[in-house]
């Protein structure tokens, strides 16, 4: 046994020595690429509501629904991108392809604003004179959206995993480097968003749409150059084939053997084989989802090769394969809670609230663009993340003796709780804005969609700040949670899970808005979400979101208590399995 252990250690050390982890040295290229990619994408996406309603002459409900579908499709595309990445192309090639596709998408959207034939004519003073976009104009716009879907579907599931690949996960410095990378990644990402919603949005709204949309396209082009400049120093993990195949094998074999009975101590009798060259860490037996254990029951018909692997993986699976599937299944209930978190955190009517509020900066004539108010959400995140990473985590680490200070699920739970406060504050602020708009509208200022409230739009800052704090806890916590809890060969798919949650939230948000709009349109209280917010009850909609967030927190607490982290099996089982490994004869 001692000879076997020494041989294994030597092989692992040789494998590690072949990989030159550059860690921090690779970060300027990776984070630089991501920063400029977000400067390009966010610089366009944050102001699309304004662009579609004022430049493409769409109705608010139509533009909001279209963007919900676009965002949902974009985020669900990450699952497909992750599959191709982990199965065929690897993260490096997938990221390069996605960056180029995003640039082409932004270029097409820029052209819709540049050439008159690609957008409808401007509206007159009266909305009744507005002419909507033609089928050809919409087709050209949606083609640009399509390229952006392909680009985002390729970039989003890979960028975080690709950055984490640059650190050695088997050293203490590497592990801490990965944890800090997640925090600082979101910090630089938020910085890019802040530039987008201030400088870029200002140019788009107050200077020129063609110039304002050309700037993000240039940013995306810079992103392409930065990514390829660092090619020689990247650690490029090769794809190992589809990890989804292994999941399907476990499900199929478990179903075929559903009539078999498990032993009282199944971990002592199940087929146990781990490939020598697998990048996945060896997992202990866990007692959740025991029905899947039947996939590893060895029968007389099952044939085993001389190296210990199954001759037909569709007839018998290893206990390692079963535990990897359990890891994925355990994550799904937590992922479901993240859907409603995104619904509560992303308030899509904030831009329209700002449009019907007093946006003047003090007593000056300068008006802050409506989409720019999102900067306060990003500002709170940018301020909190360095404080949390450098001050709060080290303090909590000394108190709790945990590597991250608190567990990832605790971090996510705090973020979900903050969405309750955020939605509640949003309802109070909207009620105040609407009452003032009805009782004493601002004289001399009138929006095409309705009267402007004398309430300063800066009253939106508290809810936006809470949204930023919620994201600092829950969003970063989700990314870290998926990365660490998925099997190592599924980290791109793990990255896509975060965006799939956002996708489901976008569709759910669109469904809620459409449902509330249709249900309340003929009710006694009137339409909650009309074109003129002063004639609606957006505050009621926020109260509805608050109630959903409260239910979501209760659901999350139940799931968090049930959850078992990857690699934490029963201590008794672990001792018995170790003894079993020790008693194996040397080959």
TrEMBL record:
Bilayer disposition of the protein: Multi-pass membrane protein
TM ranges are: 96-115, 182-203, 209-229, 364-387, 408-429, 497-520, 540-558
Listed CDD domains? MFS_NPF1_2
A Pfam family hit:
PTR2
Superkingdom classification of source: Eukaryota
What is the annotated localization of this protein?
Membrane
Q: List UniProt keywords, sorted A-Z.
A: Membrane, Transmembrane, Transmembrane helix
Q: Which residues form a coiled coil?
A: none
GO-annotated cellular components: membrane
User: Which family is this protein grouped under?
Assistant: Belongs to the major facilitator superfamily. Phosphate:H(+) symporter (TC 2.A.1.9) family. Belongs to the major facilitator superfamily. Proton-dependent oligopeptide transporter (POT/PTR) (TC 2.A.17) family.
Protein's UniProt name: Protein NRT1/PTR FAMILY 2.11
Q: Which species expresses this protein natively?
A: Forsythia ovata
Taxonomy of origin reads: Eukaryota, Viridiplantae, Streptophyta, Embryophyta, Tracheophyta
């Amino acid at each position: 046994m001692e000879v076997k252990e020494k041989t294994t250690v030597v092989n692992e050390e040789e494998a590690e020595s072949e990989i030159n982890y550059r860690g921090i040295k690779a970060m300027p290229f990776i984070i630089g690429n991501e920063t400029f990619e977000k400067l390009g994408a966010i610089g366009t996406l944050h102001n699309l509501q304004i662009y579609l309603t004022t430049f493409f002459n769409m109705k608010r409900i139509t533009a909001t629904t279209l963007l919900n579908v676009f965002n949902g499709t974009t985020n669900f595309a990450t699952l497909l991108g992750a599959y191709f990445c982990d199965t065929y192309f690897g993260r490096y090639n997938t990221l390069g392809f996605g960056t180029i596709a995003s640039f082409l998408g932004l270029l097409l959207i820029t052209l819709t604003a540049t050439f008159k034939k690609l957008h409808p004519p401007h509206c007159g003073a009266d909305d009744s004179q507005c002419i909507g976009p033609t089928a050809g104009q919409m087709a050209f716009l949606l083609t640009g959206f399509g390229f952006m879907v392909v680009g985002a579907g390729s970039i989003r599931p890979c960028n975080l995993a690709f950055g984490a690949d640059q650190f050695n996960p088997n050293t203490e410095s590497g592990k801490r480097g990965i944890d800090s990378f997640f925090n600082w990644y979101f910090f630089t990402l938020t910085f890019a968003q802040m530039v987008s919603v201030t400088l870029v949005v200002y140019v788009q709204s107050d200077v020129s749409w063609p110039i304002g949309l050309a700037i993000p396209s240039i940013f995306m082009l810079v992103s392409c150059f930065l990514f390829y400049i660092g090619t020689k120093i990247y650690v490029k993990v090769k794809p190992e084939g589809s990890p989804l195949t292994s999941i399907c094998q476990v499900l199929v074999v478990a179903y075929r053997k559903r009539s078999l009975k498990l032993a009282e101590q199944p971990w002592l009798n199940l087929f146990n084989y781990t490939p020598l060259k697998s990048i996945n860490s060896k997992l202990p037996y866990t007692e959740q989802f025991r029905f899947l254990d039947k996939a590893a029951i060895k029968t007389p018909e099952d044939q085993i090769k001389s190296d210990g692997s199954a001759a037909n993986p569709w007839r018998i699976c290893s206990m390692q394969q079963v535990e990897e599937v359990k890891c994925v299944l355990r994550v799904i209930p937590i992922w479901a809670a993240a859907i409603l978190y995104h619904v509560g955190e992303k308030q899509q009517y904030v831009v329209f609230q700002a449009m019907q509020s007093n946006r003047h900066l003090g007593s000056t004539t300068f008006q802050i663009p409506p989409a720019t108010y999102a900067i306060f959400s990003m500002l709170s995140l940018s301020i909190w993340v360095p404080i949390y990473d450098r001050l709060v985590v080290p303090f909590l680490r000394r108190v709790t003796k945990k590597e991250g200070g608190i567990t990832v699920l605790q971090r996510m739970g705090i973020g979900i709780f903050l969405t309750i406060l955020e939605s509640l504050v949003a309802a109070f602020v909207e009620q105040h804005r609407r009452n003032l708009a009805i009782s004493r509208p601002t004289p001399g200022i009138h929006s095409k969609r309705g009267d402007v409230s004398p309430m300063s739009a800066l009253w939106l800052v508290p809810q936006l700040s809470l949204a930023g704090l919620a994201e600092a806890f829950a969003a970063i916590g989700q990314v870290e949670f998926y990365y660490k809890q998925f099997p190592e060969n599924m980290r791109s798919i793990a990255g896509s899970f975060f965006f799939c949650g956002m996708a489901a939230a976008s569709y759910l948000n669109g469904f809620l808005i459409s449902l509330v709009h249709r249900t309340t349109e003929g009710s006694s209280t009137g339409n909650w979400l009309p074109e003129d917010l002063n004639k609606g009850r957006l505050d009621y909609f926020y109260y509805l979101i608050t109630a959903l967030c409260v239910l979501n927190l209760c659901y999350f607490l139940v799931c968090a208590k049930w959850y078992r982290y990857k690699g934490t099996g029963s201590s008794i089982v672990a001792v018995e399995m170790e003894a079993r490994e020790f008693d194996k004869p040397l080959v």
